[in-house]
Specification:
By secondary structure, the protein is mainly α. It has a domain of 54 residues. The protein is built from 6 helices and 2 strands, in the order ααααααββ.
């Protein structure tokens, strides 16, 4: 009487307890990579899930995939990016200088208001012109 394949099937708890050595996994992955056996044959022969065999291949296979991102740029792209970064740095430096100047002028106005006893900020304001996009200075008439 021939052996029936069902006689060798393991129950779910028995399958969960089984562990395969690293050498066994490497050997089966090597056979798959050489084309001697297919993944489905290893799964059927050793009663292992497809997912498990594929994880062995990822871990021990020769074709380990690299998931690094490769960016290809032309020299002009690289140069343009470098110039843009330099321009941004220059503009940020200028904004910082202008902010310091603004703070200086505000402090000078505060000191002048205290010294002369007048409200300069309320009398002098910058408002957009109604005729163009430029700014008009509105000063009180004397």
């Amino acid at each position: 009487k021939m052996a029936n394949r069902d006689q060798f099937k393991l129950s779910l708890p028995e399958r969960r307890r089984r562990t395969f050595s690293e050498a066994f996994k490497r050997d089966k992955v090597h056979e798959i990579e050489l084309g001697k056996v297919r993944i489905s044959q290893v799964c059927g022969q050793y009663n292992v899930s497809d997912t498990s065999v594929r994880s062995w291949i990822r871990k021990f296979g020769l074709q380990k995939q690299s998931y690094e991102k490769i960016i290809i740029e032309t020299m002009s792209d690289t140069l343009a990016l470098k110039q843009a970064k330099e321009r941004i740095a220059e503009l940020e430096r200028l904004v910082g200088q202008k902010q310091i100047e603004i703070e200086y002028y505000k402090k000078m106005i505060d000191l002048a208001q205290d010294y002369y006893g007048i409200e300069i900020k309320k009398k002098f304001s910058m408002q957009p012109s109604s005729t163009s996009g430029s700014i008009e200075k509105n000063t009180p008439s004397v």
